[in-house]
Design goal:
Layout (H helix, E strand, L loop, with lengths): L3 H4 L3 H9 L16 H28 L4 H9 L5 H9 L5 H12 L1 H8 L1 H11 L2 H12 E2 L2 E2 L2 E4 L15 E5 L4 E12 L6 E7 L9 E6 L6 E6 L10 E12 L7 H12 L8 H34 L1 E2 L2 E2 L4 H30 L7 H24 L10 H8 L9 H13 L5
Parallel strand pairs: 3-6
Antiparallel strand pairs: 1-2, 4-5, 5-9, 6-7, 8-9, 10-11
Amino acid sequence: MADSSVADVDAQALLDEANSTSDAQGEPKFTLELDQDQKDIKEWVHGFAEGVVRPAAEEWDEREETPWPVIQEAAKIGLYSFEAVGQFWADETGLTLPIANEELFWGDAGIGMAIMGTTLAVAAIFGQGTPEQMGEWIPQCYGDADDVKLGAFCASEPDAGSDVSGIRTSAKYDEAKDEWVLNGQKAWATNGGIANVHVVIASVDRELGSRGHAAFVIPPNTPGCEQGAKVKKHGLRASHTADVHLDDCRVPGSCLLGGKEKLDERLARVREGKKAKSQAAMQTFEASRPVVGAQALGVARAAYEYALDYAKERRQFGRAIVENQSIAFDLANMKLEIDAARLLVWRAAWMGRQGHKFENAEGSMSKLKAGEVAVWVTERAIQILGGNGYTREFPVERMHRDSKIYTIFEGTSEIQQLVISRAISGFHIK
């Protein structure tokens, strides 16, 4: 795939294509056979992951710093750009974005998150913003190859993680100045404080809980928006995570995603006892869960492949250890679980792209399964490598650390089970 094939794509054309329907040709059929474009993108991202990301993985994990040189390399070839993500999103099957994420995170999850973390902010702007807001803010999340920028999505708080209704960050409207004033503290924000553009979920009406939330863009260098403590993490250490403090942070009225008229209409419906139709934080999570599942798949696949190669080469008692049934069966089950999880991810991604309602919480199913599989597969990889697997000299130790977050962020495994159980039973399980 030529580097320029992604970089030269017109941004507005991508938006139009991604927002259009496929009425003329009918709904695309779900298929497990990738088309040539999908194969080319898969090979392109895999080549970058293998040639650039993997060689740098150990260094940036140890440094626990944002791998700016790697992000810049991704920007130079067009991978870190709005055009690339827009092209992935525009695929009417919904599969290209998870495919690209799996390949990138196969290279390394920490660097993968440093490159893809911006897409959370972009997803929020894309899903809730007006066309004018998309055109203004999404390019600023990326910058360009000569001046790389980042985006950050800020939803979680010290006392509001899985329970998004507990968000305390407030947004008050100053009608005289047509400005919103934000106050509060965000936690666990990928790229928090170092991003050019922050997207913040805040409450405009605490009495309405999560139905009273809205999303706001914080423009670059806005006074009152500052980085708090940087988090020292168990895994994904090449990805910057920090608190974000909002202290009388004023943003123009135009920074409310979707606009005030739309917000006022939604709040009025809720106050009348009607459904809100969408919630600011959950709308972003619903779109991103299959993609997060694909990231976990990349980690799991990397660990499985490494363990398989190791088991073929490592000899004990005069034969390769893969000839021991216990190890061979472990590897067989690792492959089985990875492929099963991928089917759930692809189904959810396809359903989301076609606008199908997740009647049985298929998005949550995909993220739950992929996250649990990643933890299990990387743990088994360590066991197959034995003492070597427990050391930092071998990458499965890092992969295991990286995998654990996929049972926690964007909804813990327990929250996913709660969502699924409510969907299949029709009861409000607590």
